[in-house]
Amino acid sequence: MKLGTELRSKLFIKLRSSALLHLIPGNWGEGAITQTPFAARLPRAFLCARSIAGLDLQFMKHAACHFSLTNLTRGKTSSSVARAAYISRCRLTDERTGLTFGFSRRHELLADGHVNWSTGSSTLWNAVEQAEKRKNSRVAKEIKVALPAELPLDEMRRLVHGFCCNIKDRYGVALQFAIHAPGFHDDDEEKDVRRRLKSGEIQAEEYQNILYDPEHTNLNFHAHILFSRRAKDPETGEFTEIVRCLDDVRTGPQEISFLREEWEVRTNAALARAGADARVDLRSYDAMAEAGDAPKGLVAQKHLGPRLSHSGRIEPDARKEPQTSDRDKHEAEAARLRKYRSDVRKHNERLWTSWLELRALQREEAREEAALIAAEREAARKAEAKKEKQRILKAESREEAAEAIQNAVHISGPKLSAADVIDAVASGENLESDDAGYVSEFDTPLEMETYEPKASDPPPDRSIKKVKRRNPVRQRNRG
After folding, report:
1. Predicted TM-score (pTM) of this structure
2. 105, 110, 153, 304 — which has fewest CB within 10 A?
3. Whole-angstrom Cα distance, residue 301 to residue 363?
4. Which H or E run includes 27?
5. Rounded average pLDDT per 10-residue block, the chain, 479 residues
């Protein structure tokens, strides 16, 4: 849709006043945006809305739109026992290897639980490990999801637990979930807050308020969902056949898409229950752009993970040995990836900003054009309705008046009956006045946000009624 001259000037004035870069090719409306503006950085943890020229802009994609599923493979990744110890921040021993994994010193755990298992994490994941015999077996799967910071902690636990129950009902597996707190911007502040919480200086409620404060944390609430690869027998409690639909080449992508859509629906329902306006969208940037819900050219950010995210945050101790070359390479790689993510984020924000502003202005122009078309059609309708009223007034007999009333298509719902109208015509009453009795359904504008339709008649009873049938009397004919 081409923008009008007035709307173009409105946009250029706003672009100039907000110090945005130039966008739009020479023939605006026919070409595509080639150079996009960059406004102030928008908050990353919440849906962001901006306005331009008095127009409300649509929301950008929520930051908590992360859903990943990975396999735990023996010989390539950590064992399921080690992974369970990490996500639950506890100490577990792998009976198959004899190794003990302890993460009880870490305090990011906010909530955890099991689904379809009742005897604890140690027995669960050792049973999972014993069920697999090959040295390169896949033993378990892990889902990592981001949780919106708009949800309270109780709602987060309800959301994750409900999603785990859905997985259990669909595949029959055993699951363990854990919700982790976001990271602090300052490691020293994090240690101080943990110490004060442990000593009782601050209560759990105050601790949660600190976690939800973007000045202290990155608001990266997230959950880990670990579940077995094999289904659990509900009678014996043992792990039986492998759930192969998740690994199959044909059904695997479909099952993962189902899980992503299920998580998206449940998360948005939780946000609606919490009264938040934010919504998550787990579609890819390409799928959103193809559907017209996002600009083209957005780049997905590469996930750093906990190891690269913490690189460079802790200063080296001068009393220890100097850093090795491997550590230097690791720090350089982490710094390079962080810079790349920052550049990608700025690039995406520029695309979002320009696309949202242009989209809002195009919608405003469409509303103006629709208002002009509606006004023209309303004027034509009123002119035709006036002619129909004239035909009724000029009728020379009751038959002609009744026929004129019957053929009137632009006069709906007259207050007077046809006989009253004919009598009024015969008596010479002026029916063109405001009190004539003719009221069109289009004469009164409707406010769609507050309009309530009239209650219709109750639907007819379509229930199936039993019919008594008389059994036919059989008679034998003797021949």
Report:
1. 0.65
2. 105
3. 30
4. none
5. 49 42 35 31 34 43 85 89 94 92 88 92 94 90 94 95 95 95 90 90 91 92 95 91 92 93 94 91 87 86 63 46 62 80 86 87 90 92 82 77 77 57 56 45 56 62 67 64
